[in-house]
Amino acid sequence: MDAMTFILFGSTGDLAKRKIFPALFNLYLEGKLPRSFSLIGLGRKPYTDAEFKTYVELSLQTFSRSRPNELLMQEFLRFFRYQDIDVTKKEGFRELLNIVLEQEKELDIPENRMFYLSVAPEFFQTIAANIKESGLATAIGWKRLIIEKPFGKDLISARELNDKLVQTFEENEIYRIDHYLGKPMVQNLETLVSDNPILKALWNNRYIANVQITAAETVGVEDRAGYYDKAGAIRDMFQNHMLQLLMMIAIHQMAHSPDIPIGTRKSHILKSLRPLSKENAALDVVRGQYEAGEIGGNAVAGYREEHGVGATSMADTFVAARLWIDDPHWSGVPFYIRTGKRMREKSTRIVVEFKDPQQHASSSRKRTTSPNLLTIQINPDEKITLQLNGKNVLKSGETKPVYMDFSQSSVHMPEAYELLIYDALRGDDTFFARWEETESAWEWVEPLLEAFEENVLPLELYPSGSYGPETSCRLLSEQGFHWWHDEQEEKEQRRLLVI
Ligand code: NAD
């Protein structure tokens, strides 16, 4: 890997402390950082280099998945430096250039520069402009930009931001982080289908009845009300993470052109999504907000009673939608997506429900078996479960569901940020959101933002600890389906039924 300088804006913030430093350290331990590696931390705090190193040490001791050994930690921190900066002022960037040049010279590092913007989004454009203006971007080696979400708050602001960024960085130099794409199970999705002929053969509208994508949290808004109350679940989860999961599960080799890159195939999915209109959004979308309720036996407050939230807030903490991909491969297969806070279970997973060909051959035949389900659990555990039907010899041979589980041990699993930062350092953008995808996602979501804003779509209240508004079940029941909730719970229910 190329030697380079890692320039981290927002190095004293929450994300750097919890994710970025531990990720870099674990890459270092695994020999995945270049031998010559210099890091320049930037932030508002007036740290000296020594204070900054102590701060990073503390972050590693608290958040690193591998136990930090003192010696290795000191070795890792050797080439860390710190500069306090106000990114809205140009002078700081000239000073930064001097430090970068000094380090490059001292450590004999070519002018390869990775800029990481772990700061509030209102600074993204200013920083990119100041990087250009100061001369930091005119390096002889490569330059890259890693940028955190949110990428805009709607289609117009996302386009404005992108127009500004591309004045300093080319599209192929911009790495837009969607940390869901860094989760090992999500990175596994394409291989799971394309390298397993059993699944590959069934991965189309002939055999798949529907696909359900869930990202449910038990936590509420916590201390993020300032941001969340304006963003809601639609911007915080749906436009980015949920649509990325949809793309990753639905990508397929296009007929007659097997070597099309993953990014193009992902964009094809979004571009094939049937558009929704603001006026008819209520037919396919449900938005909700949590009320007081119980989670794990404890009483919890409703969203409007949370600290920093107004008593009349109309922010969505739950969104469910039915989507159709109008291409020959998926035509007729509904994709159901739901995401919410203060839900009954914490789980991110994709359930693929297979068709029962016999049932379709003769609709008068009563269904006696459960559908085959492929459940891909992404969080909190990583696991793939296949639900099949087997004969229950204890109960006069009737059919009952049996399960095949494949679990990945999470102890040594790299964290999403490790995988993503490593890819960006190598110049591999496979698991980053490209502009084409980001723009198409905003385009699709835009009518929903308007429908939410203008209250064309009712805001349905749901008790904390539930599966969200009851009406989200209608999205599926109209095609004769229902949500598959936590697979363990289903298993238990079935066990009770069959014993
Ligand atoms: P934070 O508020 O904890 O940290 C902000 C950082 O920006 C600090 O280092 C601060 O010194 C610096 N900063 C603020 N104003 C500045 C200025 N004028 N000049 C220079 N530096 C300035 O924020 P965070 O939670 O670390 O989030 C950083 C980014 O990552 C945001 O874009 C956020 O949306 C995104 N993000 C964060 C998380 C998370 O878990 N924290 C998750 C996903 C995305």
Features:
499 residues, alpha/beta, 9-stranded mixed β-sheet, 6-stranded parallel β-sheet, 16 helices, 22% strand, globular, binds nicotinamide-adenine-dinucleotide
Topology, pairings included?
Layout: E1 4-9, H1 14-29, E2 37-43, H2 49-63, H3 70-77, E3 80-84, H4 91-107, E4 113-117, H5 124-134, E5 143-147, H6 155-165, E6 174-176, H7 184-194, H8 197-202, E7 208-216, H9 225-250, H10 262-271, H11 281-284, E8 285-291, E9 293-295, E10 298-300, E11 318-324, E12 334-340, E13 347-354, H12 357-361, E14 373-379, E15 382-392, E16 398-408, H13 416-426, H14 435-453, E17 459-463, H15 472-477, H16 487-498
Parallel strand pairs: 1-2, 1-4, 2-3, 4-5, 5-6, 7-12, 8-17
Antiparallel strand pairs: 7-13, 8-11, 9-10, 11-12, 13-14, 14-15, 15-16
Helix pairs in contact: 1-2, 1-13, 6-14, 9-10, 9-14, 10-14
Bound molecules: nicotinamide-adenine-dinucleotide (NAD).
Could you describe the 3D structure shown?
This protein is globular. It starts with a strand and ends with a helix. The chain contains 16 helices and 17 strands. It is of the alpha/beta class. Helix content is 38%, strand content 22%. Strand 9 (293-295) and strand 10 form a beta hairpin. The mean pLDDT is 92. The strands form 3 sheets. Strands 16-15-14-13-7-12-11-8-17 form a 9-stranded mixed β-sheet, sandwiched between helices. The structure holds nicotinamide-adenine-dinucleotide (NAD). Nicotinamide-adenine-dinucleotide is lined by residues 10-16, 43-44, 85-88, 118-121, 148-149.
